[in-house]
Amino acid sequence: MSKTYLPAIDAIERKWHLIDADGKVLGRLAVQIADILRGKKKVIYTNHIDCGDFVIVTNAAKIVLTGKKLDQKTYFTYSGYPGGAKFKPYSVLMQEAPEKALFAAVKGMLPKNKLADKQLKRLKVFRDANHDHGAQLAAAK
Fold first, then answer.
1. What is the number of alpha carbons within 13 Å of residue 3 lying toward its C-beta?
2. Most exposed: 7, 18, 43, 71, by fewest CB within 10 Å?
3. In a domain, 135, yes or no
């Protein structure tokens, strides 16, 4: 009988991935980012161990929504107080904070547990091509 392989937490090697979101569809891009954050493409992937990589996303303002989603889809937040529900159409959200739209899409595709918070901390989203992670440019290739 063979034992199941479990990677040591110290042995997990985290890489940096640089993704250009120019012209990409929001949902399809969010799936790719969620897979990288969870580490699903790695050989050592185990669903209860955080073995994912870092992701830098640039040009979030140039993300595309297909169909009529730009007009019909809404971003929902709730403060927890009565009457604290806020609805914002994606046409407004994509102009004001496109990085928030991508972040919410990726968050929705991660599991709802304690690992998701750790994985989301490794996601860096920027509105345009400029970002403050210059040291990772060489590592992202």
1. 3
2. 43
3. no
